[in-house]
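= Tokenised fold =
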Amino acid sequence: MNPTTPKRTAKHLLPSDLRGMAQLGSQATAGIARIVEGVHQSILDRLGAPGGQAPGQTRGITGLAYKSVHGVNRLVGNGLQALLKRLEPLLPASADDQQTSAQRAALLAALNGVMGDHLLETHNPLATPMSLRWQGQALDWQHLPAGFAPSGKVLLLIHGLCMNDLQWQTEHKHQVVDHGQALAAALGYCPVYLRYNSGLHTSQNGRELAAQLDLLAQHWPVPLEEISIVAHSMGGLLTRSACHIAAEKGQAWLPLLKNIIFLGTPHHGAPLERAGNWIDVLLGSTPYTAPLAKLGQLRSAGITDLRHGHVRDEDWQGDNRFHRMPDQRLITPLPAGVRCFAIAASMAAKRGALANRLIGDGLVPLHSALGEHTDPRRDLGFAKSEQLVCYRMNHMELLSSPVLTQQMLDWLKSPTKT
């Protein structure tokens, strides 16, 4: 979303970022060594040579060499991380830098999208915690930011995979476009933006979002009349997950939810992730390439959830997410009593079989973004009047189109169904 790359990226980093990168570097070295050793042992297996104690391990002098590599890497990695942690209090850092650096936010968002589950599991400081934000600042209900002027209507904007809240502000023909600010100014909403680790399972993020919205309903400074949501891409799956969890728990914020607008949400999955799953299968099909399958398995749980559009724990629990499996999702309809709208894009000039199933917006096919399914039980049933298809538009242009701003404005200002 940022057309220019800063010449000095380091000035956007915090001391804890350096420690996180050192940890990732050490883990990457160990991972590459394991892959190389696995290929080495695969060749030895074909020659009848015995392996080490665990699959993919070598033995003898060769095994000792690989153990030495791992040992030195651990020693250097742990020492470097310990040193950086001790130096952190002595290095200059500013909370304001962390809030205002769009470059740092974009870098961390991309990293979390690709491997955010790993960052969280390894307690890496680069892992992004979920937060509700206003003008780039995390909302602390005990100490609200200066200038915060809430209204009784909240508009929550939820970004997609590998993105962050600052990227809702973009450009169209050299004009700044921010759907949230435009809708808020026209309709009296207070715009709140979500930032989250998009590498986690959508149901994990959905559960946390439901909890965050429950706190918002409890602590909003003025009487809360309405919540509406605009969700881009993966953010729509997160929204459906949060609504499902809130309905199960009877959370107080759900009855306040009046509208959801889905922008390019892969309700029934995205072909690119299914293609990634095929790569796993192909690499694992021979003993020589099986160790390389680990490279394909670097992608996060959030990415593999996009294969079929998972929104519930049951959709993925108990399965190996890198195995080729059919769509086994539980039926999860749109939330009852909430007006739901779907916006889909297509890079094609008009709708057709190829455009519907393969082209779409470059990431999400039309039928998936519109919630359409050949199984009537899975079809989400968006009314035709609550759908919009934009042609000659790609997935990211959904964030910058004034046409979409106007359509959302028309939808939201129309009377709410009772």
User: Anything to note?
Assistant: The first strand starts at residue 131 and ends at 134. The two ends are 39 Å apart (CA to CA). DSSP finds 13 helices and ten strands in the chain. Confidence is low (pLDDT under 50) at residues 1-10, 94-98.
